[in-house]
Design brief:
mainly alpha; four-stranded antiparallel sheet; two-stranded antiparallel sheet; 23 helices; peptidoglycan lytic transglycosylase activity; Lysozyme-like_dom_sf; Lytic murein transglycosylase; PGBDSf; signal
């Protein structure tokens, strides 16, 4: 996506015109701040849709990685034809014919502009409340309800076949690409993108599989070559499948013999549902509940490793804002405070974790769950998000980790990813310093550490 496109998308946030390739990328930028280290996003690729960095910014973001230096990039560019040719044995082992391989690789050229996009997320900081409000807009709600009505027979069949909530599928469709807007899907050739990243840059091992998976799609003619357009990282279609995820989750739901998640509405809906199902979605159950915490609550209970039944949380004084009882008191959940003690609180269920497997960012998963509820007829969150000026940059997150490590805490690698170890360490530090132990890393916490 061009820088101007993404910037226009940001400016359009207030009226709901933000495009999926940009906004889902913004959500992943929060993953390092609000999601513990976990498996990488297996499906969505619009998470990579940031504007390109300047050359100095790119050099800093890539941390001097040996495969990202100017000389390494120039060498890899020169070696590109040989690199592609050397991938033939792997492609053959995956069922790609020689004819298909030669047809689609003969004229490949590296798209070096893509290198400017890599690792651009970490320094793009924004508080989670602003992200969720930017993603869940009245425009998306209105159009999503139109989608649900227009394709009701397909959603009926999908729910019966896969046992996945139609509102969750529609929410992913809306967040990922604004329901199929070309600017949301992306306009780059998927084979060009995956080939470039398979042979150039620091993530060649990962994208080698994506490149081969793209060739498999073309071998089976599931999606026409000229329709295989997407983000710079290779995600395609209205719900943004990466090629390897397409291989695992895509289904032929319209019965034409093709798994076309670009042009076939039935295939798009059912494939997205199949993904959620295989990731553990439980039909008829909530993704989570907004809750109000009682006075004097021990915030150390806000820990992903602490799971209790809803009945147990209720006995501790946690209530839904409406006062309505939890429908299934025996279900287990963990307490999440995505913006700390001053923001909304949530009890998160298995379906929230299923969304996180689609894209491992709390901001993204929370936006999907909230949009799904709004499409169903629910209202906005009862509690307000704190009015933060900005989130922490990667350097600031790393500084927090470094200071915690100097205090003797085991936080793992100083990588700017504030996972479970870092959150527990922050909570302990907050207890020792007399602050509420909500584990939330913000500027106030960093400034206190600096004193």
């Amino acid at each position: 996506m061009a820088q101007t496109t993404c910037m226009r998308a940001l400016k359009g946030a207030l009226n709901g015109t933000v495009k999926g390739v940009c906004v889902a990328g913004l959500a992943l930028a929060l993953a390092a701040l609000i999601t513990p280290a976990r498996a990488q996003a297996q499906t969505t690729g619009s998470i990579f849709g940031f504007p390109p960095l300047s050359q100095p910014q790119a050099a800093q973001a890539n941390g001097g990685h040996p495969l990202m230096t100017p000389q390494a990039l120039a060498d890899a560019q020169a070696n590109f034809p040989a690199c592609i040719a050397n991938l033939w044995p792997l492609a053959q082992s995956k069922g790609v014919s020689r004819r298909t391989f030669e047809r689609y690789t003969a004229n490949l050229e590296p798209q070096m502009k893509i290198m400017e996009f890599m690792d651009s997320q970490p320094e793009f900081s924004k508080p989670i409340g602003a992200y969720v409000n930017m993603l869940v807009t009245e425009t998306r709600v209105k159009k999503g309800r139109e989608i649900l009505e227009r394709y009701k027979p397909i959603f009926d069949r999908m729910e019966k076949a896969y046992g996945v909530d139609r509102y969750a599928v529609t929410a992913i469709w809306g967040i990922e690409s604004t329901y199929g807007d070309p600017d949301g899907i992306g306009r780059r050739n998927v084979l060009d993108s995956t080939a470039t990243l398979a042979c150039i840059g620091r993530r060649q091992d990962y994208f080698r599989d994506e490149f081969i998976a793209t060739l498999q799609i073309l071998e089976k003619d599931d999606v026409p070559y000229d329709h295989l357009k997407g983000s710079w990282a290779g995600a395609f279609g209205p719900t943004q499948f990466m090629p390897t995820s397409f291989q695992r989750f895509a289904v032929d739901f319209d019965g034409d013999g093709k798994r076309n998640v670009v042009d076939s509405i039935p295939d798009i809906i059912a494939s997205t549902a199949n993904n959620l199902k295989l990731d553990g979605w439980e039909f008829g159950k909530a993704w989570g509940y907004e809750v109000v915490l009682p006075q004097g609550f021990d915030y150390r209970n806000a820990n992903r490793s602490i799971k209790r039944t809803l009945g147990e949380w209720n006995s501790m004084g946690l209530r839904r804002p409406s006062g309505v009882a939890f429908p299934r008191a025996g279900e287990t959940a963990y307490l999440l405070l995505p913006a700390g003690a001053n923001g909304p609180a949530f009890l998160m269920m298995k379906n929230f974790d299923a969304i996180l497997k689609y894209n491992p960012a709390d901001a993204y998963a929370l936006a999907i769950g909230h949009l799904a509820d709004r499409l169903r007829g629910g209202g906005t969150f009862a509690q307000s998000w704190p009015k933060e000026e900005r989130g922490l940059s990667k350097a600031e997150r790393q500084e927090i980790q470094s200071r915690l490590a100097q205090m003797g805490y085991d936080i793992g690698n100083v990588d700017g990813i504030l996972g479970q170890k870092s959150r527990v360490a922050i909570q302990d530090y907050q207890v020792r310093s007399g602050a509420l132990p909500d584990g939330y890393p913000d500027l106030q916490l960093l400034q206190q550490m600096r004193r």
